[in-house]
C-alpha cells in the first residue's frame, strides 16, 4: 500500500520544526553560557585590580562607624588643647576654624548665638601684635598680668558684639558692601594709599584688608544701632520725661544755671551749662538750628540730637556768633543700652582664659 505523501510531508515538517527548536535552544544556551562567561571574566578582572562590585552593608557600616569614631576622637583631642591647655598652636587654630568650639553662649545655647574659640584666638593675636608693635613686653611678670586682663576683656567684648548683632537683627539693620567699600576707600585716601594701609594693618594688628573690612562692618552696625536706640521712644521715655520736667521748672521761674549744675549730663554742667561763643558748623544741625533761631535771653523748647535731649539758652550775641548755655539729659545711648542688655542677657561661659 503506498504511503500517504501528505503524512510523510507532515512528519518531515514536524521533524524539521523540532530540529529547529532544538537548534534555537542550543544556540540560546550557548549564548547564555558565553554571556555568563564574559560577565564572570569581567568581574574576575576588576576583582584582580581591587575593585569590589558589590560591597556588603556590614562593611559600609564599619567604615562609617570608624570614620565617626575617628572624627569624635579628633574633636575631643583638640577640645583638650582648647579647654585645658588654652593652646594657640597652628594646628589648634586650623581645627577651631572647622569646629566652632564655644567660649560663651549669649541668649541661646552652644549651637548658636555663641562666641567661638577661633574668634577669641583672632582677637588675642591682634592685641598681642599691637602691644608688640608698641614695644611692650607681655612676657614679664607685669606683662603677663596685663595679658590675663586683656584676655578677659576680649571675651567680654566678643560677648558684647554678639549682643549687638542680635539686637541689630531685631531692628532689621543691614550693611551693604558699598557702605563698607566707601568707608574703606575714604580711610585709604586719608592714610596715604592702599599700600600704606596694608603695611599699617600688618604692623599693628597682623590684619589683612578683609579682616579690616569686617571691623568696618561691625563699626557701621554699631553706629546704625545707636541711631535706632536713640529714635526708640520706648527706650527714651524716662529721659524725655525728665527734660520736660526741667523745662517746666524753667518756665515757672527756676534758675537755668542752677538746674544745669544739678541735672545736666554734659561737661559744661559745672559752669551752669555755659558753652561759650558758638559759630555755625560747630555743633550738630539740630542744636545749631535751635540756638541761632533764639534771641538773646530766650530759652528753647526740648531739642533732640544724637546726644540726647537739650534745653538751650542764648545769653549773648557777638557778630555771627552766639553765646549759649544748655542742659543735656542723655537718652538711651549705645553704651548705657549695652550695659542694660548685658545685665539682662543669659550668658554662659564655657572657657576661662
Which of globular, elongated, flat, extended, rod-shaped describes the shape?
elongated
Task: Return the CATH architecture of the largest domain.
Answer: Orthogonal Bundle
CATH topology of the largest domain: Triger factor/SurA peptide-binding fold
Mean pLDDT: 86
How much helicity do the residues have? 55-70%
Summed up:
By secondary structure, this protein is α+β, with helices and mostly antiparallel strands. The protein has three domains: 14-48; 100-232, Orthogonal Bundle (Triger factor/SurA peptide-binding fold), CATH 1.10.4030.10; 234-331, Chitinase A, domain 3, CATH 3.10.50.
Model description:
There is one protein chain. The chain is an alpha+beta fold and 353 residues long. It is 63% helix and 14% strand. It contains 12 helices and 7 strands. The chain has helices at residues 5-48, 57-83, 90-98, 117-133, 141-171, 177-191, 194-204, 209-231, 233-251, 256-263, 285-292, 334-344; strands at residues 102-109, 112-116, 274-278, 299-305, 308-318, 321-329, 347-349. Mean pLDDT is 86; it is low at 1-40.
